[in-house]
Design brief:
The structure is a single chain. This protein starts with a helix and ends in a 7-residue tail after the last helix. It has about 120 residues and is an all-alpha fold. It folds into two domains: about 40 residues, no CATH class; about 60 residues. Helices cover about 70% and strands about 0% of the residues.
């Protein structure tokens, strides 16, 4: 039973080693000479003129979330498109596969219209 899990454990160990070993090597080998110039925030050569922790407008986050949501949902279209020929070739599945994708796209359109009506896409 263990021989089935051994490749997985080796893969996890190698992955952890690739992640942890460079960090530890940098921490042990690299020189540590902090000064005020190195510890100052980077502002393209200018002195920092605002707090780095200023608040962003909520609309920025809303647009970002909507982009991720619709981007991920569009990614579900690719597997359907790759097997579209098999769906069309099978008479029993032909109508079901097409209607299933129409329902999915319909839900996407309803969500898009809802976001549009609520003003989530308006940027002033």
């Amino acid at each position: 039973m263990l021989e089935n899990y051994l490749p997985v454990l080796v893969f996890i160990a190698v992955g952890l080693a690739f992640g942890v070993v460079p960090i530890l090597l940098g921490w042990v080998i690299a020189p540590h000479r902090p000064d005020s110039e190195k510890l100052s925030p980077y502002e393209c050569g200018f002195e920092p003129f605002e707090d780095a922790r200023m608040k962003f407008d909520v609309r920025y986050y809303l647009i970002a979330i909507l982009f991720i949501l619709f981007d991920l949902e569009i990614a579900f279209l690719f597997p359907w498109a790759t097997i579209f020929r098999e769906i069309v070739a099978t008479p029993e599945v032909k109508l079901f596969g097409f209607l299933e994708m129409l329902v999915f796209i319909g839900i996407l359109v309803v969500g898009y219209i809802y976001a549009w009506v609520k003003g989530a896409l308006d940027w002033e």
